[in-house]
Amino acid sequence: MRYAVELAYDGRSYAGWQRQPGRKTVQGEVEDVLSLLEGARVPCVGAGRTDKGVHARGQVASFDLTRKWETGRLLQAIDNNLPPEIGVIRVAAVGETFNARYDAIWREYVYFLWTAPYCFPQVRPFVWRVQANWSSPDLALACRALEGVHDFRLFCPQGELPANSVRRVLRVKLIHRREWTAFRIRATGFLFHMVRYLVGDLNRVASGKLSLGAFLKRLSGLPDGRTQEMAPSTGLSLWGIGYAPSPWE
């Protein structure tokens, strides 16, 4: 039987999603619990590879078990054995060909920024504190320009750059709520560190350190000699994964 599980986690204590020898990862913790339930090693496939310190609200993983489980009982069995930083949102039985990574048609990330001069201690681990004006007209135009097909080669470390760095952004939205702003981006795929590099450049646009024209030039894949600024991992969350049909329906 193959199952899909939706997970949320606080990424502060982990070296990212992907299992790495000798390092504490979210995938490693999940696979350890599944292996405990199965009595044998159970690998799982994650829909997205979150970096060290990045959080998730809607990571999805798929895996096989030899025993047939009622999904409610499986949810409780996994959730009760995971560390408190990782939680199970829902579980579904899926077809034998379902793959959490390759069947995803979009991924969505949200980056949270805190714009007030003070910040509650409970909020600090999950936001980037900035002083820039994230309500500026130029920033709104920059976000609107992100939608569509672009070459994001300048928003990825050169050592991690794939042969094809073109990606389609389906939707970008800025949400303002008093002291905080959420930058929400949905795309068919992302490059390594792409969202953090984008937020770093957008923050420079918001602060007047980078012109809208220079940002649009970079969005076309044309280098301008400027040093890139990568936003910290604290404010970033993998928000959701889209499938058609959805395993949850």
Describe this structure in words.
The chain is α+β, with helices and mostly antiparallel strands and 249 residues long. The chain folds into two domains: 2-103, Alpha-Beta Plaits (2-Layer Sandwich); 106-240, Pseudouridine synthase I, catalytic domain, C-terminal subdomain (Alpha-Beta Plaits), CATH 3.30.70. It is 22% helix and 29% strand. The chain is built from five helices and ten strands, in the order βαββαβββαβββααβ. Strands 1, 2, 3, 4, 5, 6, 7, 8, 9 and 10 form a ten-stranded mixed beta sheet that branches. Strand 8 (166-177) and strand 9 (180-187) form a beta hairpin. Helix 3 (137-146) runs antiparallel to helix 4 (194-206) and helix 3 (137-146) packs parallel to helix 5 (212-219). It is globular and about 60 Å long.
What are the defining features of this structure?
249 residues; alpha+beta; Alpha-Beta Plaits; 5 helices; globular
Strand and helix map with partners:
Layout: E1 2-9, H1 26-38, E2 44-46, E3 55-64, H2 71-81, E4 86-94, E5 106-114, E6 128-129, H3 137-146, E7 148-151, E8 166-177, E9 180-187, H4 194-206, H5 212-219, E10 236-242
Parallel strand pairs: 3-10, 5-6
Antiparallel strand pairs: 1-3, 1-4, 2-3, 5-9, 5-10, 7-8, 8-9
Helix pairs in contact: 3-4, 3-5
